[in-house]
Structures are given as C-alpha cells and as structure tokens.
C-alpha cells in the first residue's frame, strides 16, 4: 500500500495525517471499546522473545482439524499443525512439508517420504504410523468433516518408519495439495487415544507453536515449541490471537498498539491504513469468495429456476463497489479471473437482470415473489453486506430477513444437524487445489452441501477427470465442465472475491499475504 498525500482538511495527530471524520470515528470507537491507549506497549516475554499479538476476526469452530467447519479456523491451526505438504503463498503450488518427498509410481498410488526427527508437542514421535492413524481417522470417523477430502483413498499402508503409501480408488493428482489443508494436519496419536479420538479444545500437533489456552470468544494463546525442527522459524516466543469480530475495532487495536497484526480488514479501511505512516499495509487478491450458500433440499430452492433467479437478481459490480469499497472482484463462479482454471464462458451466465429474475420466479409459480429465511453474521461488515443484498433482491421480488450471530454459531446451525435457514451469507475461503473446492461445495456427502443434494449429472465425472491427469490443460478443461454444470444448475450464488487486507505495526518483519487469504506467521519476527 502507498501512503496518500494529506489534504487541507486533514488533522495531523502525532505526525499522522487523518481526515477529521475518520479521526473522530476512530476516537469515539476506541473510547467505547476501551482500546485507546499509549502507542508504546509492553511485549510479554516467552523464551526470551516477544509475544506476537494478532487481532483475529472469529472464534474458532474447533481446534481439531477434522472436526472444525469454518475456513476462518485455518490461521489459528497453521501454527500448531505442520501439514504433510505445504504450498507456495503466491501460486499455491505444492512444496515439501512433513513429507519431504512424494511420488506417484502409478496413477493410483501415492508414496510419501516423511521428514525424520519430528516430534509432536507431547514428545511422541511423528512417523508413518502417526500418518496412517490421522488419515484413517479423517476419512472414516463419523464426526470428521473432511471425509470428502480423502474420498479417493482406499487404504493407507505403512512401509517403514518414515514411508507411507496411499492406495487410491481412482487417480487423484490433486491429493498432494489436499494434504496441505486440514487433511494433512497431523495430530498426536497419543493425544487422540487419551481424548476419545478428538482434540477440539486440547490440540496437540507438530507445528512451531504449541497450544496454551482457549478462552471462548476472547483469546487463543500458543507458545513456541522448543523442539521444533521444521522449516518454519518465526522469531517470536508466543502468539496470542485476540478474537475481535468487528473489523474497525481490529484495526484500532493495531493503531493503539494493543496488537501488532490485524487481518481480514475491510475495503473501507484501506485508505485509513494508507494514510497512517506508522502502519504497514498489505492488500492482495485472494480466492476467498463471498457467497450465498443454498439449502437445495428446502422449498423453493429445490427448483433450479428459483436459484437461477437469485443469481440474476444480484448486482455483483454494485456489491463490490458499495459493500466492499471497491476492494474486490465480482464473482461469477468459485474461481477468480487470475486463476489458471477460470472459465470465461461460465462467467457470462448471470448478468444482472432483475426482469429475468422475476420472469423465472413467475415460471416457477411464484408470480408474487418468494420469502426466504436468511442467515448471516452479526459483525458490522456482514450486516452492511446483508443490507445491500436485500435491497437488490427485493427489486426482483425476493424478500426475507436475516437472523444473525457469530460465525461459528451460525455456520454450525446452517451446516450442522439443525440445517436452519434457506441461505447463509458467508464465504468460501478456498482450497489450494480447485477440484477440492468443487468437491467440498457440491458433492452430496459434503458438510458444506447443507441439503446433501446429489450433484447434477456429469458433475462427479468432471471432477474425476480433473484429477486423473497432472496435465494442467486437461485439468482445466475438466474443471471448466464442473464449473459450468455448477453454475448452470445454480448450486451457489457467488458474489465477490475479497482482497486480503492486513495492517501491521512497523515492528513486524517477514509477514507475507497469500492467495488463500488465510495468514500464516511462519517467518514473522518483531523488530525492537
């Protein structure tokens, strides 16, 4: 981010140029929230090094990789759980992790060679048996939300202390990148055995940070694991994630010095960050997509014409401009223009057309429009998005009201056993491999397919084809088919891809954004 020149109406506050309205808003909000304090702060010491304090947007749904259901969990999971495979932050291509090498001796066999000398936070060894325990649990346990991730795995075989073979039901070139996400986060088998096979609130991984405490809705704290010998070497002794759901308050926490990092900030805050020379700003594109999830098992959303009408009714360009202050890209599928698997033909399916939306509703037997039970989140940014969308939908005869709550609570109520609401305004936070995105969103057994509705004809085959080759051209063609089928059948209402907007103090060194928009702190340090 570049700093903007000051204008005649700006105030200079401690050398910082700031518009009067922005300053007054910041001041009153800080006083109300109790966050205004001296710019100098005390760093808690851990192992002779400072604590990195991070303002995070959401309470985690779980600290167990297999049981959580929120994409916002990842930023808290990454420090505690090294993954079998890593990914490059700018390209999302696979890089070594706990598996230092991997190979496909044939299309239905994946061999992982593990890094030796790794231990879990409880001191037990990380080895091939631990990998088998984790993968078998994740793909078979009834409580696992990531069974679909590993649906191509037939069995896991131990071939030595540090060699694991995955025998597949079908070729799956996406599997290495799948193992860079939740499915590749390794949990201590001893911790699983001691805790009835789940570690929702007492995680034990093999990452550079070990769990310290979780105060619900307030803080998740972790300290450096002294015996960590992996590639991630942040020069901090601890990380404290402070849960602050309001985006403006997260930014104020960095402005006041209570935190060194605030992420998942809004487009409206970009200009303020740019105008504050005491802050470092980051704003980069992501595959993080705001969207309406739809429970297609509930009437009237079981009718494809109704779902298509909703897609025609939303004005994506206006949504980006008004609700996101321009800091995003209109979304017409679950991949942005910059992605290698983007399909330009699919992007033409739903231009903004309220008249077309009304006509489709009438054809479906709803000449007077429809009333929907809508669910969303209660932070200020989400509420503003809800207001913009309700105004757009109402012009096509689509009415309803939002019931709101925290991310963890509303997501669990919508996707979990209760299946509450017709649609949830949330986001798909993306996955390193695009085939996993489409599998998790639309396969009939996926957690994120709230109605557990069978995918349209041809969809499953397109996904299989996308994984049967490592040739990117062939994969692109197959994924284009999957995307067209998903959007022709209006399985989702994609809205916009957000930018990853992060503010840090000048003391923070080594932070990098990534294409997933889920921050990692693997090489961060604090300059004195």
TrEMBL record:
SUPFAM superfamilies: Periplasmic binding protein-like II (SSF53850). The keyword Signal applies. Residues 95-446 form the Solute-binding protein family domain. Belongs to the bacterial solute-binding protein 5 family. PROSITE patterns: TAT. The keyword Signal applies. Keywords: Signal. This is Family 5 extracellular solute-binding protein. Pfam families: SBP_bac_5. InterPro entries: Peptide/Ni-bd (IPR030678), SBP_5 (IPR039424), SBP_5_dom (IPR000914), TAT_signal (IPR006311).
